[in-house]
């Protein structure tokens, strides 16, 4: 295999040096090769395609540089969402539907009434209906909170666009 005259030297760089944008490291031997090289000229190892960036950029960092006000708003909404989820689950442990009512879901009255029926059935079937109904009420409350949060985000975006 012949080396191209303009190929990189193939030396391992010291820690204070970095590769240029048209270079990368060999996956096997660690020497510097062309970014578009499919086979390392030093060791002959087949290379995977190079990433478009010379280093990985965390998604959160990229998003923060693009639109910081939206990120800050979503962090405050997320804190509110977590608090409401804790309230939902905690009160649904006491009585199904109670947590739904406290987070603003009016269907909690119906869930509370149905809980009496499932509670009565649980005497004959080892509490399995109550456990399943608890999971269902928690999931429905979670879906309600997600819809509520997406409405708040849409409203904030609309307010930001109009101002």
From TrEMBL:
Native organism taxonomy: Bacteria, Pseudomonadati, Acidobacteriota, Terriglobia, Terriglobales
Transmembrane segments: 81-101, 113-139
Membrane in keyword set: yes
Top-rank taxon: Bacteria
Keyword terms: Membrane, Transmembrane, Transmembrane helix
Protein name per the record: Zinc-ribbon domain-containing protein
């Amino acid at each position: 295999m012949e080396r191209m005259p303009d190929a990189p030297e193939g030396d391992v760089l010291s820690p204070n040096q970095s590769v240029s944008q048209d270079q990368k490291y060999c996956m096997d031997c660690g020497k510097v090769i062309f970014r578009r090289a499919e086979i390392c000229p030093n060791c002959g190892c087949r290379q995977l395609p190079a990433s478009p960036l010379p280093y990985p950029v965390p998604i959160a960092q990229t998003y923060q540089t693009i639109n910081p006000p939206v990120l800050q708003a979503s962090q405050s909404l997320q804190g509110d969402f977590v608090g409401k989820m804790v309230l939902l689950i905690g009160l649904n442990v006491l009585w199904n539907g109670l947590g739904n009512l406290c987070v603003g879901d009016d269907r909690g009255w119906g869930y509370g009434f149905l809980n009496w029926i499932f509670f009565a059935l649980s005497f004959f079937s080892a509490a399995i209906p109550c456990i399943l109904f608890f999971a269902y009420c928690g999931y429905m409350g979670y879906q309600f909170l997600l819809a509520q949060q997406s409405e708040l985000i849409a409203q904030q975006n609309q307010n930001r666009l109009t101002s």
